[in-house]
Amino acid sequence: MGLSISLLFLMTLLFSDLNVIQSATTEYTTLIYKGCAKQQFSDPSGLYSQALSAMFGSLVTQSTKTRFYKTTTGTSQTTITGLFQCRGDLTNHDCYNCVSRLPVLSDKLCGKTIASRVQLSGCYLLYEVAGFSQISGMEMLFKTCGKNNIAGTGFEERRDTAFGVMQNGVVSGHGFYATTYESVYVLGQCEGDVGDSDCSGCVKNALEKAQVECGSAISGQIYLHKCFIAYSYYPNGVPRRSSSSSSSSSSGSGGSSSSDPSSSTGESFLSLFQLCLF
């Protein structure tokens, strides 16, 4: 399981079966993308399946208590490392509802592959067997840009200023930040075990990719291996609505902040963002 497997996994992430689903039962369980290693693990004794099941169970259980958790299960011959992360503005209840869907989705979408990543709009799950080659934390896994472009309105200047605010915010928020700047809503999050300095660098990289990849698109999402960012521009102001899933910052999730009174929670942003994006 060397570099070729890692490249195959990355190729799968980038070029095959990256599904963007427009409908979902709730706004934080929309499937964004999935990445599956090409290679299935050999499991004549069933030990890998047992280890994978135990890992899934542990991740789901922990999702009632925290928004990020990483664990390793199995024996020395069947070691599997897995993690989940929920968006920083989800409650523990919503985090659990999101994460509890991921084991079934992983099995349905990828089967018993040696590595799998399933990203929903509110959470993601990743696992890999021991020996699976690593990819850079800055590697872009998925991008999507709004179909509508904004020109001649100062949009890109507003967006770039909002990007700068967000890059600073993910540091002060210890890995999660969401804010509005002049009708541009931005949200960024890093994987829970990434330090503040590395998080800032990852988000900066993602923001630069958004500028290049999405140009003047009204909205966009960029997913790197260790962080993601999303933005959306609302010319008439960010719509307000109530949200049952917003929460104050807590250990391990970072905080969120707003820079003007018209901002809404990160969850309502992503719900509206999905409508705008597709």
From TrEMBL:
Key words of the record: Cell junction, Cell membrane, Disulfide bond, Host-virus interaction, Membrane, Repeat, Signal, Transmembrane, Transmembrane helix, Transport
Classification via PROSITE patterns: GNK2
Calcium among keywords: no
Main location group: other
One of the protein's GO biological processes: plasmodesmata-mediated intercellular transport
Sequence ranges assigned to domain Gnk2-homologous in this UniProt record: 29-132, 137-236
Family that this chain belongs to: Belongs to the cysteine-rich repeat secretory protein family. Plasmodesmata-located proteins (PDLD) subfamily.
Protein known as: Gnk2-homologous domain-containing protein
Organism: Brassica cretica
